[in-house]
Amino acid sequence: MIRLEGIEKVYRTERIETVALADINLEVREGEFVSVMGPSGCGKSTLLNLIGLLDTPTSGSVHLDGTRIDSYQDKALARMRNRQIGFVFQTFHLIADLSVVDNVEIPLLYRRMAASERRRRAIEALDRVGLASRVHHFPTQLSGGQQQRVAIARAIVGNPRILLADEPTGNLDSQMGHEIMAILKELNSELQTTVVMVTHDARLAEQTTRILRLIDGRQVN
Amino acid sequence: MIRHYLKLIWNRKRSNLLITVEIFFSFLVVFAVVATAAYFANNYRRPLGFRIDDVWVVNVDAKLPESMVSEDDAVAVVETRRQLHLALRELAEVRELAGAYTVPYGNSRWMSSTKVDGRSVDYTMNGVTDGFASVLGLSLVRGRWFGRDDDAASWDPVAINEQLAAAIFGAADPIGRTFPQEEPEAGGKQREWRVVGVFREYRQDGELALPENYMMIRARPDSFESGPALGRLAIKVRPGTTAAFEERLVRHMQAVAKNWSFEVKPAVEMRAERLRNTLTPLIAGGIVAGFLLLMVALGLTGVVWQSVTQRTREFGLRRAKGAAIPDIRAQILGELLVMATIAVLLGTAIVVQFPLLKLVAGVTAGVYAASLVISALGIYLLILTCAWYPSRMATSIPPAEALHYE
Ligand SMILES: Nc1ncnc2c1ncn2[C@@H]1O[C@H](COP(=O)(O)OP(=O)(O)O)[C@@H](O)[C@H]1O
Ligand SMILES: [Mg+2]
Questions:
Q1: CA neighbours within 13 Å on the CB side: how many for B343?
Q2: List of chain B residues whose C-beta atoms are within 8 Å of the C-beta of residue A95
Q3: How is chain B split into domains, by residue range?
C-alpha cells in the first residue's frame, strides 16, 4: 500500500547539512500496524512526514497503491492528505481558539459537505475516542490525554485509510498512553485502518504487527 | 466553511480587535487625506468663470485721507477717475478696461446677504464698471450685462451667477426679478436689486476655491456713489504686450492723476502669488499627510504581518489536514477583509456625521462619498498588499516545516 524507494532526506540550513534519512526502502501493507523506533534525532519524524506528504524527499520516491505521488502538485497532495491520511502529532496541534468539535471538523472543511453532516461525523468521531461529552469544551479545558484523543478524532473523522501517529503518547503519562494505544489498536482491528506509529515505548511497540528500527537515518534490519 | 472562519474571528476577538482598531484609525487618516485632496481636486476641475490672459491689474491709490472726505475732495476724485479711464482708452495697447471694487485673486472680499422667503442667502459681491465682463471674458447665460442703457434706470441693475440665481429664485427665470438689498435705508425704504443678467460662474479666489454665490452690481467711474469704491482697474491689453508697457502705463496714468499712486501687475502673476500662498500650507499639510500615510501603511503591514506569521503553525496544520494553498490564502484574506469591512463601516459611520453636522463647510456630498469609496478601496488595497507577502511565506514552506515554525 505504502512503498518508499531509495529515500534520502537532507536538511540544509546555512552551513550545516543534516542527512536525516538515507537509503530507506520500506513497504507497509494494508491493515498493518507498524511501529517506528529509534533514538532521538534518528529521522523518525522525517520518515513519517514523508509518508504523510507533509514534506518531500531529497531523492527517492513515495508510492501509494502503486502510484508515485511525491511529485504531485499541491492541490493533488492536499486532496491525498485530506482523503487518505490521518496524522496525529506529539504536540497535538489543536487550534486553541476553536472548540473541540470545531477542531475535529477541520479536515471536513476542505471537502464539499453540508455543515450538519460535518457536525454529525465530528461527534461520531469524538464518540469513538470517548469524548462525546466534551464537544463544546476548548482544548485548554482538557487534560493532555483528552487533547490527544481530540487530535485522534480529528485524524479519523474523514475515514482515512492510513493513520500516522508521531509519538502520540510522548507527552502523556503511561496510563493515558495506554488509553491512546488502545484506541489506535481498535481502529486498526475494527476499521482495518493502516497505522504507522512512532514511539519510544517498547511496551507499546510490542503490541504492533511490526517494528521498524532506525538509527542515524538508516534502517536496521 | 464561512461559519467556521467567522467563529474563529470571533473567538480571537481580542487580537482581532487590535487589528480592526488599527485598520479603523488607518481608515480615518486615509479618509482625511483623501477628502482634503478630493476637495481641492473637485474645486480645481470646476469652471473658473473668467480668463486672465492679457489681463493686467492696476491698484489705484487715490491717497484719500483716513478720516472724513470732504465733498470737494470726493468730487475731485470722481473727476480724476473719469479722466483716467478716458486717458487709458487712448492707448493702443489697451483693448478694454474696467474699474472694480476687487479683481480675481485680489485679497478683498465684499460680503452681503438677502432674505428670501424668510431664509437668509449669503453672497459675495463686487462693484464693477460696464467693461468688466468683457475684460475677464465672463460668459453670460441669460439676459444681458448692465451698461449705458441703465444710466437712466430708477432701479439698481445687477448680474448674478447661476448658483445665486438658483439659491434665490430656484428654477424660475430670474431675469427682471428683484430681491431686497441688505439693509433698509434710514428712511425705512427697502431698496431692491434687479437682475438683468445671469453669468455662469466667477470664482474670485481662483482655481482652488469653492464656488460661491456671486453678484456684480453696476458701478460708474463718473458717479459719486460708486466712484470712491473703484480701487482697482482691470485692463485687457493687446496680445503680445510686453512688460515694458508697464512703465509707460504708469507714466500715462500719473500724467492724469499726479498725486495718486499706481501698482501694475499682470493677473497671471497675481494668480501665481495666490496659488503660492494657498499651496504652501497645502504642501506642508501634504508632506505631513504623506508621512501619516506611510506610518499607517507601515503600522498596518506590521500588524497584518505579525498576525499571519504567528499563525504559521495553524496554516501548517490545516494543510496537513487537507487545505490546499489557495484555501489558506483565501482564509487569510477573507479574515482580514471581514475585519477591514468592520473597521471601514465603523469609520464611515463616524465620518458621515461630519457633513450632517456641517462641520466641514463646503465639502459636497459627492466629494464626501467619493472620498469614502477611495479611502475604503485604498485600505483594502493596502491590506491585500500587506497580507500578500506573509501569506506567501506561510504557504511557501512545506507543512512539516510550518508545523514547527517558532
Ligand atoms: N526542518 C529541519 N531543518 C533542519 N534539520 C532538521 C529539520 N527537521 C529535522 N532535522 C534534523 O534531522 C534529523 C532527524 O530529525 P527527526 O526526524 O525529527 O528525528 P526524530 O523524530 O527521530 O527525533 C535531526 O538531526 C534533526 O535535527
Ligand atoms: Mg520526532
A1: 29
A2: 8, 314, 317
A3: 2-45+274-403, 63-259
